[in-house]
Amino acid sequence: MVLHKLLSLCAAASLTIATSATAEREVETLDATSPWHLDMAEHKCRLARAFGNEDTPTIFYLEQWGPSERAIWAVAGPQTATFRADRAATYSFGPNGETSEFKFFDSAFGSFGKLLSAHTAIAGKAVIDPDAIEVDAIVVDDRGGSAPGMPQLDGEAAAGVSRLTISQHGRSDLVLSLGNMDKPVKALNACIEDLVKYWGFDPEEQRRVASPPEITNFRTVYREVTKTYPKDAIAEGRQADFYLRLNIDSTGKVSDCVLLNQTVTDGFEMAVDPCSTFMKSAKIKPALDVDGRPVRTFFTTRIVYRRS
Q: What is the CATH number of domain 17-128+152-198?
């Protein structure tokens, strides 16, 4: 079952595509052509808006798969076709938001075309997760699972963000005029709280979690996960990016595991679901609340399959 919730946060802006030359770089600016749309599915919340030409729009979205201080941003449309996956690019949420380099792999977002995507806090500085692990051909990012309580995006700080600029050597900068981001970000936070309720957890109880669940044999489990990387994918350079969520009871036992497909290249097929590895091999200390009592909670992690 999939739940859908649609929210119009502001009226559609007029269409403007402006190309201007500065002393250093050319800039292509796209204005919004739709209101913000907020959608809640079984496992994620997505905030999306259309930009540019109404007949061939460019889509921007922010997406979260659970409570986190970071989100996935993504852009797909005619203007993304000339970005190259073999070159680093830079994104900047301006004027007072996060700026960082990012890399992407060749994938498409339906009929909208090439997808550019990265993780962001939107407002603030880029943070390199010290718990991210690279094992053979897999990068594991447990940012979502390592944060206690109910972390969320900083809606107040997002008031200082009104545009996204994507830059790469050899082409003009792409700028999306997002509009003030405080209300959209706060709406996304509210959606994630509703999502946690849908999963069967009490958000207030989760806010009292002081110590998150801990996979004590973390590296061993992820080394087992590397064995699920398809051999053909390694040979041909195919890649994938997944989210995984474990529901963990107050004894540390995994009661459920959900593997969520985020982005994959064509022909990427796993022989073994990583959930089976977690269910079989993970040794977990349960989460503790502020009073030191074990509590039922969830653990989310990102699994990124990359060719070494």
A: 2.60.40
Which option is the CATH number for 203-305: 3.30.310, 1.25.10, 3.30.70, 3.30.2420?
A: 3.30.2420
pLDDT in tens, 15-49: 343 444 434 679 999 999 999 999 999 999 999 99
pLDDT digits (tens, 9 = 90+) for 123-134: 865 444 434 434
Report the C-alpha gap between 223 and 214 in whole angstroms: 17
